[in-house]
Each structure stands twice: as structure tokens, then as C-alpha cells.
Amino acid sequence: MTSSAHSPAPPAPARVYLPLLDVLRITAILGVVLVHVLGGGVEAGTVGIGVTALDMAASAAVPVFLMMTGALNLHPAALRRGPGVFWRRRAVRVVPALVVWSVVYMLLIDPLAGADVTLGSALDEIITAKTAVHLYFLWAVLGLYALAPVIAAFLHEDASREGRRAWWMGLLGCGWTALAFAVPFLTAGPTAGGALGGLSQHRPLEAGALTFGLAFAGYFVIGRAAVAAPPSRRTGVWLLAMCLPCVIALTAVYEAGRGGAGSGSAASAGIAVLGSGYTSPLVMIYSIALFAGVAALALGWRVGPRAQRVLRTLGDATFGVFLAHFAILVLLRQLPPMGDGDELWQMAVAYAVVVPVSFALSLLAQRIPGVRLVF
Q1: Is residue 220 domain-shared with residue 320, that is, in the same domain?
Q2: 3-state secondary structure 145-178
Q3: Contact 373, 352 (CB under 8 A)
Q4: Model-level pTM?
Q5: Per-residue pLDDT tens for 252-299?
Q6: In the chain, where does DSSP find H-type helix?
Q7: In a domain, 329, yes or no
Q8: Has residue 10 been placed in a domain?
Q9: 130 lies in the same domain as 271
């Protein structure tokens, strides 16, 4: 008689195609491009508060991508062949793109933008995951892939409690990240705006190539939670209703910070903690409410085979768009009429050019053997 300890594990449930996830991928990449197009004008103060609010609304794009990554990679089917196969497949998808595009940005794009690249600066950019303004995401994803088998083993140990475990683990992870990144603002000296009078200026977690995965693990797990145990439709409506107040609050916080409100006081520490970074508790609440609210209302949506092909194709192309769009934006801004891209009309032109060109380049690259490894 075979003991239960040696009984074969039940087969992983089949993965059902969820068109919502591809729609979210496509929408999120449009938001990422928007953030990079608007960022210069918003920081320079050359745009009105409406454009700033639009930029704040798009701040959920990267967290949505992180939650999407968790929704897909913490599914039992993703790990059905074991961690070795899982890691190898993800490495083949991410590592070549990370290496090639890091080289492209450091050696070709950065000099166009006026950066002076040296061996020391290149090494520093690799350590801090700043080989390009957006490529830290790939370092984060690699870290999350490394953690995924351990997280999945905990979540899938009891299928009946997976959703509950994922929600608690994801929310605790986000809370830990928010606290870790808030500490230096809360404990810095009075002249730096610390709330506790100069106890410490040290951060429990420094963001870099080897730590971004830890910082974003909360988002990663919540992505699985929202798919495994989506909120009720009524709760989903309330979650989506929260999004507008969150965007208004983020806009107000950004404007207050730019205006120097509460400089050197506890108020400035609060502004720094609640700002538009992805570790901000306000951005976390907004992003999670958006993702979970949409999942609650539309996770059960299904489409026919033709629509599936279109959504899958565009969804897969978002990776290449993510990699290439910033290079296209920098190249576009080398044209004399585009200048720094801080004027509203320049931003509109840039967005109208960068989005279709990036998608076209990504779709084309996927048809070319070898090239598609880095798109």
C-alpha cells in the first residue's frame, strides 16, 4: 500500500485564457509610454494641472504590469514542470533582452541624451539597475521569477485557501515595502523634513538590481490574489470608485511637493512618503484598487478565436514596446522642432509617433528569428 507521502501530486489545473489580462497589458504599456512622454513637462512645470493629473493616473501602469506578472507566473500551470524549467524559460525570455537593451541604452541612447558614459558609471548603472530609465523593471522581474516557486508552493499548498493566502501575503508585502521606503523620510533630521527629528537617514532596503524583486513582491502576489479570489462585483465597483479620489490626492501631493509646501517639516516628509513613486502607499492603494476592481467586473469576460489571436499578438508585443519605446522617444527628441519635449503639442506629437512605431517595430521583430529573442 502506497503512503500518502509518496502519492503523486494532483495535476495542475489547465490555464484558461483570460482576455482581460491581455487588455490590461496593452493598456498598461500605453500608460508607461504616457508617463515617459509627459514626465519632462510635468517636472518642468510647463503643463497644466490636468496633464499632471493624467500623469498621476498613468502611475498605476507599472504596478499593473507587476500584478499581471504575478497573475500569470503564480498560476499552478506555470510551475507544473518544476522550478528548473520555469527559471530556464523565463531567463531565455528576459536575460538576452536585458543585456542587449542595456548595451543599446548605455552606449547609443545615453550619449544622445547628453550622458557621459564611463566604465565606472556603467558598472554603477548595472548595480543600481539604471542602465535605462525603465529597465529596472526587468531586474525586478528576474528577482520575482527567482522567488516565484517558493511563493507558489506556499500559495498552492492548500488550494481552498490560495486566494486568502495570496491577499494577505500580497498586502503584507506591499505594507513592508511602503514602510521600508518611508523610513528615511520619517526619521531624517528636521532640515530634511523628517517627522521624528533626525533619528536616522538609513533605508532598510536600497533599490537596485538585486533588490527590486523584493520591493515589488507585494504587487506580484496580489496579481495572483485578484485572479484566484477576485472581489465581488459590488466590491469591484467601490474599488474602481476609489481610483478618482486617489488620482486627485496624488495630483495634490505632487503639486504640494513641487511648491515646497511644508519644507523642512513633518508635512514635507508626508509629501515624500505619499509621492508618486511605486513604493508610495497612495500609489499602492490606487493601483491595487484599479487592478482588483477591473478583475472583479471583467475577469469572466470571454472572446472568440479571432479576437483571442489579436489580443494575444498585441499583448505579446507589449514587451518589445516596453523595451524600445524610450529609445524611439529619445531619437524623436533629437529633431529640432521637438526640443526637450516639454510643451503640450510636443508631447502630443511624441505620443502619436512613439506608440505606433514601437508596436510596429515589436510586431516586426517577432517575425525575425534571433531578433525576437530581444523583443
Answers
A1: no
A2: HHHHHHHHHHHHCCHHHHHHHHHHHHHHHHHHHH
A3: no
A4: 0.90
A5: 999 888 766 555 556 677 777 887 689 999 999 999 999 999 999 999
A6: 19-44, 49-57, 61-73, 83-104, 110-112, 119-127, 136-156, 162-187, 212-215, 217-228, 233-258, 266-274, 281-298, 305-332, 344-365
A7: yes
A8: no
A9: yes
Q: How far apart are CA 315 and CA 27, in angstroms?
A: 9
CA quadruple 340, 261, 278, 229: dihedral, nearest 10: -130
197 conformational bin, left if phi > 0, alpha if psi -120 to 50, beta if neither: left
Domain span including residue 260: 58-301
- Domain's final residue, options 278, 301, 324: 301
- Specify the DSSP class assigned to residue 12: P
Place of cell 542602465: 131
Q: Which of 239, 222, 238, 219 is nearest to 286 (CA)?
A: 239
Whether 143 is in a domain gets the answer yes
Nearest CA-CA partner of 76 in 2, 173, 166: 166
Does 22 lie in the same domain as 103?
A: no
